[in-house]
Amino acid sequence: MGLLTTEQVAEVLGIPVIRVERLTREHLLVPAEKDASGKPMFAEEDVKRYKVLAERLGGL
């Protein structure tokens, strides 16, 4: 399982970083852990599952 930064998640989903931060605040994307500086790190599999779900519901 790989961990992705907020910037990497934004790239995978094709959305701005600010939107990833909002999805995190709304608990739609849940970080797997935090790095040494306290920034969220997301499990790659969770991000891919979220992308599939969002596309099924009408897109990101």
Describe this structure in words.
The chain has 60 residues and is an alpha+beta fold. It has a domain at 1-31. The chain is 50% helix and 13% strand. It contains three helices and three strands. It has helices at residues 6-13, 17-25, 44-56; strands at residues 3-4, 33-34, 40-43. A hairpin with a 5-residue loop joins strand 2 and strand 3. It is globular. It starts with a strand and ends with a helix. The model has no long low-confidence stretch (mean pLDDT 93). InterPro entries: HTH_17 (IPR041657). This is Helix-turn-helix domain-containing protein. It comes from Alishewanella aestuarii B11. Pfam families: HTH_17 (PF12728).
Top keywords for this entry?
single chain; 60 residues; alpha+beta; 50% helix; globular
Radius of gyration: 11 Å
| Structure summary, number of beta strands | 3
Task: Give the helix proportion (percent range).
Answer: 40-55%
The outline comes out as: globular
Detail the poorly predicted runs: none
Lateral strand order in the biggest sheet:
1-3-2
